[in-house]
Design goal:
With 478 residues, the chain is an alpha/beta fold. It folds into 2 domains: 32-221 and 391-477, Zn peptidases (Aminopeptidase); 223-276 and 322-388, Alpha-Beta Plaits, CATH 3.30.70.360. It is 31% helix and 19% strand. The chain is built from 13 helices and 21 strands. It has helices spanning 32-40, 42-53, 65-78, 147-164, 186-192, 249-260, 281-289, 294-301, 312-321, 361-374, 398-411, 428-434, 462-477; strands spanning 82-86, 94-99, 106-112, 132-134, 137-139, 170-176, 201-203, 208-209, 216-218, 220-221, 223-232, 238-239, 326-332, 342-343, 346-355, 381-388, 391-392, 416-418, 437-439, 444-445, 456-458. Helix 11 (398-411) crosses helix 13. The radius of gyration is 24 Å and the shape is globular.
Length: 478
């Protein structure tokens, strides 16, 4: 499966000189002694990233998740933190950590230690749980999403503790083990231990460096309703010759799906847009200036044009600020080779609706069910999965400004302000409950291959990313 004779750099050892030419000292105003400690310990930090990546933790398969939680606990304690292993029935362990300081402010780091499945395995150039360094990058499942970011934050706090005996403010760590399957219990954990997770600000799980080397400050995420629809018209599959008399559930589903949105991608469920909070004029201006992944989507995925024939500018706005209705999968009847003349007994469809600030998932789910009834589809079974509202932090917030100023100092360029990710995460749990501002910052390159074979991070971005994080914290508490 893997080429023989490859020179590998597994988790258990890296050549001492491997990174000597990669990392250069960067002049800036961040605490000088801490900065030097970060620089001098890069090799060791990378070995710790590799140590965590080498532990499988695939939540979708419950593969190594609890073992990984124990390793994360150990790594928090290695930097001088105290830990609590929180456990709810049916949920992976949530690892809570804390490193106190004399400051009155508290910052919470949210990360996850679970990872995506590795399939298709044959496309990996090196084993996904044997981290390998080649061509200035470290490869392995979870090295970018999210174990590299997790370890970098631990090691940043270690740097302050080793140099000054404490971090610049009180630090809390919330490391969960089921983000990759929807964070189904995170709200329950925070509800069960409300005081434990209270903080003034939150640094979210991830952070990007764009293709031009500019740091990206993520200000929000969309929400989601994930559904499975089931239409059943028979108690067993029938011969297709009976299609003249028996109802086919697939046709019924198709007719339903055609009612949900129009050719311009507008969702036709009454009231769906009623509570959408539009972007303000200044936010629209930022969005216009923001380089967007929309520019690369057509070439990356081989599409001839954007959905609904919208323009590039409209695509950028849609990705950041408009809700969506997506068909994630449909299956029914015979799908094997050759032919089988069958009339399926039932059909299944999975859908995800991305939501924006102002929209409430529970309210919209009720609207969807009423929509089914109003159109005569009361026989459609609806199974609700992930239900998450959107969350967004203002670019004017103290935390966002601290990160922006730090980015300019560290990277010598203006950062990219991302009004909202097109993706989803449980950011709302902290933003709503505590009123805490939350942002995404980190060091993952835009071409890191997350969720895909050969996931990676660039070694030359680790030190800069850590210093950016440290400078952001120092700016925030100043």
């Amino acid at each position: 499966m893997f080429p023989s004779g490859r020179a590998k750099t597994p988790a258990q050892g890296f050549p001492q000189s491997l990174f000597s030419d990669v990392f250069a000292r960067t002049a800036m105003t961040m605490d000088q002694a801490v900065r030097e400690y970060i620089h001098d310990n890069q090799d060791r930090f990378l070995k710790d990233i590799a140590r965590l990546v080498a532990q499988p933790s695939v939540s979708a398969k419950n593969e190594g998740v609890e073992e990984c939680a124990l390793l994360v606990k150990k790594m928090i304690e290695e930097i001088g933190g105290t830990t609590k292993m929180l456990k709810l029935d049916g949920a992976p362990t949530l690892v809570f950590g804390e490193v106190p300081s004399s400051s009155k402010k508290t910052l919470l780091f949210y990360n996850h230690y679970d990872v995506q499945p590795v399939e298709p395995l044959e496309l990996w150039k090196s084993p996904p749980f044997q981290p390998e360094v080649r061509d200035g990058r470290m490869y392995g499942r979870g090295v970018s999403d999210d174990k590299g970011q997790l370890v970098a934050r631990l090691k940043l706090i270690e740097s302050y503790v080793k140099v000054h005996g404490e971090p610049p403010c009180n630090i809390k760590f919330c490391f969960e083990g089921e983000e990759e399957v929807g964070s189904g219990h995170l709200d329950q954990y925070v509800t069960a231990y409300p005081d434990l997770f209270k903080s003034d600000a939150v640094i979210w799980e991830f952070g990007k460096i764009d293709e031009k080397g500019r740091p990206v400050i993520g200000l929000g995420v969309k929400g989601m309703i994930y559904l499975e629809l089931i239409v059943k018209t028979l108690n067993q599959d029938a011969h297709s010759m009976y299609a003249a008399a028996l109802p086919n559930p697939v046709w019924r589903l198709v007719r339903l799906l055609n009612l949900i949105k129009d050719e311009r991608e507008a969702i036709l469920i009454p009231g769906w847009y009623d509570k959408v909070l539009p972007l303000a004029e200044d936010e629209l201006k930022i969005l216009e200036e923001e380089p967007s992944e929309a520019e690369h989507l057509l070439s990356t995925y081989g599409a001839s044009g954007f959905a609904g024939d919208i323009s590039l500018a409209e695509a950028k706005k849609s990705l950041a600020s408009l809700p969506t209705a997506n068909i994630a999968g449909i299956w029914a009847g015979y799908q094997g080779p050759g032919s089988k003349t069958v009339l399926p007994a039932e059909v299944h469809c999975k859908m995800d609706f991305r939501l924006v600030p102002g929209q409430d998932p529970e309210e919209l789910l009720a609207r969807f069910k009423k929509f089914l009834g109003d159109h005569g589809f009361t026989d459609v079974q609806v199974i609700a999965g992930t239900m998450e509202p959107a969350a967004r932090t203002s670019y004017k917030s103290q935390l966002a400004r601290a990160a922006s100023d730090a980015a300019e100092e560290v990277f010598k360029t203006k950062p990219v302000l991302e009004i909202s990710s097109a993706g989803t995460g449980p950011l709302y749990i902290f933003a709503r409950r505590y009123g805490a501002d939350a942002i995404d910052i980190g060091f993952s390159p835009i071409d890191d291959g997350i969720h895909a074979p050969n996931e990676n991070v660039r070694l030359d971005l680790l030190e800069k990313g850590m210093i950016w994080m440290g400078q952001t914290i120092e700016n925030y508490i100043a």
